[in-house]
Amino acid sequence: MTPVSFKALIDALKQLPGIGPRAAQRIAFELVQHKRDAALGLAKALEGALEKLGHCERCNTLSEEPLCSLCSSKRRDPSILCVIETPSDQITLEQSGAFSGLYFVLMGRLSPLDGVGPAQIHLEKLVNRAVDGTVKEVILATNFTNEGEVTAHVITELLEAQGVKVSRLARGIPIGSELEYVDAATVAQAVRERR
């Protein structure tokens, strides 16, 4: 019979994205049998993150301070606001080095079937930020999924009704790929959005 505490550990690990029952069990055994110090470090880091992390008052990303380092920076262009779904999207854009404006992190995307509506992704806060007189353009960088597209459409309608200039990230064929390996929908989109 499995000890209760070990089963609780497996159940907790199964809640993580991409971790199924068998992987959760393997990770639990590894942590408990061979990586006890790493497990304690993980537990302390998780506890510390949960205690210290909140949301930036301005952009909604994860932050230990009321304003995150990007919102506090004088080097960023406050006239351009990029709307993204998650902090990991923000990290990806920052690593590209292609964007020097500020962000607004939705912390999700519209998904009525999952109970995610405008309030859950802070649309009112976004609109207030976009019409603050500083923002000149809002770039929508939601994912190109059905939910991401619906979210972008709703945001576009809300902001354009307020007279805000809205643009959308381009999409198309990745650099270094060959046409024969790209799906038809991506090729069609690339043709429509050619420049």
What does this 3D model show about the protein?
The protein has 195 residues and is α/β, with parallel strands linked by helices. It folds into 2 domains: 4-52, Helicase, Ruva Protein, domain 3 (Orthogonal Bundle), CATH 1.10.8.420; 55-168, Dna Topoisomerase Vi A Subunit, Chain: A, domain 2 (3-Layer(aba) Sandwich), CATH 3.40.1360. The protein has 8 helices and 6 strands, in the order αααββαβαβαβαβα. The strands form 2 sheets. It has a 4-stranded parallel beta sheet with strand order 4-3-5-6. Helix 2 (21-33) crosses helix 3. The protein is globular and about 65 Å long. The termini are far apart. The mean pLDDT is 91.
Characteristic key phrases:
single chain; 195 residues; alpha/beta; Dna Topoisomerase Vi A Subunit, Chain: A, domain 2; four-stranded parallel β-sheet; two-stranded antiparallel sheet; globular
Roughly what fraction of the amino acids lie in strands? 5-15%
- Shape annotation: globular
Kindly name the structural category.
alpha/beta
Q: In terms of per-residue confidence, which ranges show pLDDT below 50 for 5 or more consecutive residues?
A: none
For the sheet with most strands, the description reads: 4 strands, parallel
> What are the secondary-structure elements, in order, as H or E?
HHHEEHEHEHEHEH
Q: At the third CATH level, what is the topology name of the largest domain?
A: Dna Topoisomerase Vi A Subunit, Chain: A, domain 2
What is the tally of helical segments?
8
CATH level 1 class label of the largest domain: Alpha Beta
Order of strands across the main sheet: 4-3-5-6
Share of residues in helices: 40-55%
What's the β-strand tally?
6
At CATH level 2, the architecture of the largest domain is 3-Layer(aba) Sandwich
Radius of gyration: 21 Å
Mean pLDDT: 91
Integer count of domains: 2
